[in-house]
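Dock adenosine-5'-triphosphate; give full complex structure.
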Amino acid sequence: MITVERLTYEYPETKALDDISFTVQEGAITALVGPNGAGKTTLLKCIAGLVKPYSGSISVHGINVLEEPRKSHEIMGFLTDFFGLYDALTVSQSLEYFALAQKLDKSMVKERAAEVAGLLNLTDKLHSRASSLSRGMRQRLAIGQAMVHYPKVLLLDEPSSGLDPEARMSLAELFLHLNAERNMTIIVSSHILAELDQYAKDLLILKNGRILDHTAATNLSENKRKVMIRCDGGEKRLAAIVQDMETIDAISHVSHNTPYLCLDFSGKDSELSELLHSLINKGIPVVEFFIKREGMQEQYLETMRI
Ligand code: ATP
């Protein structure tokens, strides 16, 4: 859906994007992460066709964004980090205005505004002016404005900043809904990694304008499993038995995270069940045996350490 090739963007004193290339598949939800100043906002602005890079190319759904920015805007939605609202307009009027600007048929506009307000839990504010909304509601309205035309690609720069935990949870649900029901391809930049785990399928890590990593989060968690074991006494024996097992290829590392013994495990499910079986056969009183999947937060921190 999105192809970025050899993209370089320079501000007068900074090279914000340094020769980066990547692709995003249709239907992906990609988490764009990286430290402050990594180039996330600049990258999103380039994809959205709002700024012109020094060199490189960007194609979205087959449209060359740099050559046909207006055409590309029709299939994209973009929430900037510093968004603006028309304070004098009501929620309904704001959404209708953006729907009309996106050339939605006039006959559909009212219905669409109400539908989008519903998706963002703003139905009871439809007739309130934007100026009277709380910070979180304003954020939700801005997201609504960005997606009122149900774009093929939705780009969101820090969409959950200022939202309370409940609103963040419903935002995650909204992204999953738009992705599943409307087949929207979504790129979300955020610093809240734990939250990205709830909906993102891919992880794109930027640092100093370069890509450090681009992985499918689902593959990542399937390959690297941490098995956590806790027993009711006999910890020393458990550790000794597992130490012996370290020769098994599937176990690459054993560590202690009291009260658990943690195994880095890359074997199949059948090997996992054999492991549990053999511990019980050896008389270890296992009370907990579970898999802790590696999330985006762990993957991000590990990549940043390299
Ligand atoms: P943050 O997480 O803090 O929002 P970011 O990853 O979005 O950061 P960008 O805002 O894209 O990073 O900035 C990338 C680099 O470009 C930084 O070094 C920043 O100082 C620089 N930069 C960004 N905007 C401008 C600008 N308008 N003029 C000059 N330099 C800029």
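Observed: The chain has a mean pLDDT of 88.
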